Amino acid sequence: LVAYLKQHPEVSDCLLTGGDPMVMKTSNLKPYLEGLLTPELEHVQTVRIGTKSLTFWPYRFVTDSDAADLLVLLENLVKAGKHVAIMAHYNHWRELDTPIAQEAVRLIRNTGAEIRSQGPLLANINDDADIWSRLWRDQVKLGIIPYYMFVERDTGARHYFEVALAKAWQIYRGAMQQISGLGRTARGPSMSAGPGKIEVQGITEVRGEKAFALRFIQGRNKDWVQRPFFARYDETATWLDQLVPAFGEQQFFFEEEYRAMCNA
User: Fold this and answer.
1) Residues near 233 by Cβ (< 8 Å), separated by ≥ 6?
2) DSSP character for 100?
3) Percent of the chain residues topping a pLDDT of 90
4) In what order do the strands lie in the sheet with 228-232?
């Protein structure tokens, strides 16, 4: 990892994900994270760690035998000038409702690292605006930054968990209407699709045709980022590949270039 980053000074962000890197002992994490303190890696400014351990095992940061070592490791990264962000996965406000979960959050924040929350919208679990609004309010209260509401990916047991895009947007909108500006940092509903990360911005009507308003948050081509586009409204669609262009267009603006990328 260190050798690769030394050869690529254009890389500014490093993401540790998996699986879940926090299931590893601190001694196993240390070579990766301490390696980022190498003087030749000053261009790596941000270290992100994706984990759900704050919900299923908050003891990892509180009472585990190497919890203190882990916190020192995070603190050392911060002291070295790195921006450290724990990308915490939360599905429901009840995951934050215990003293041990709140203590884990407090200890992480004491290191100087920040916690950003993200999670999928799941049918039968959190497909309700009130659940999301409380989750985001509770997170803001604890100093966690709401970051993403994801649409259930088009893989695995999605048929039980998936929520139609139209309903997903209504839930997101309903939750946003109940929280203050500090909680409105959460973006969504977002699809991590092949062409990029695409956000449903709303449902609109243009020239008598109902449509989804969409935009790229991230794209395979940076020129796609923040570019709006429209898909014909479909109340049952749950993913990008189930949508078709609105207003008689034959394809979305990015499709030809994306196909060429895939075939290259």
Assistant:
1) 166, 203, 209, 210, 211, 212, 246
2) H
3) 95
4) 13-16, 46-51, 83-89, 114-121, 145-151, 187-192, 196-206, 209-219, 228-232
Q: To which H or E segment does residue 14 belong? A: strand 13-16
Q: How far is CA 250 from the centre of its chain?
A: 31
| Tokens (6 digits) for 78 | 């911060």
End-to-end CA distance of the chain: 26
Judge whether residue 18 has pLDDT over 90.
Answer: no
Q: Where are the beta strands (DSSP E) in 97-243?
A: 114-121, 145-151, 187-192, 196-206, 209-219, 228-232
What the block records as the tokens of 234 is 């479909």
Write the DSSP symbol of residue 232.
E
Q: How confident is the model at residue 142 (pLDDT cuts 50, 70, 90)?
A: very high
Instruction: Tell which residue, 180, 181, 178, 171, has the closest CA to residue 149.
Output: 171
User: From CA 61, how far away is CA 228, in angstroms rounded?
Assistant: 41
**In angstroms, rounded to a whole number, what is the distance separating the alpha carbons of residues 182 and 136?**
9
For residue 189, say if its preceding peptide bond is cis, omega within 30 degrees of 0.
yes
- What CATH number is given for 2-188 in this structure? 3.20.20.70
3-class secondary structure, 174: helix
Q: What is the pTM of this model?
A: 0.93
Dump pLDDT digits (tens) for 170-224.
Answer: 999 999 999 999 999 999 999 999 999 999 999 999 989 999 999 999 999 999 9
- CA-to-CA distance for 82 and 103, rounded, in angstroms? 23
Cβ proximity of 119 and 150 under 8 Å: yes
Rounded (5°) CA angle 98-161-180? 50
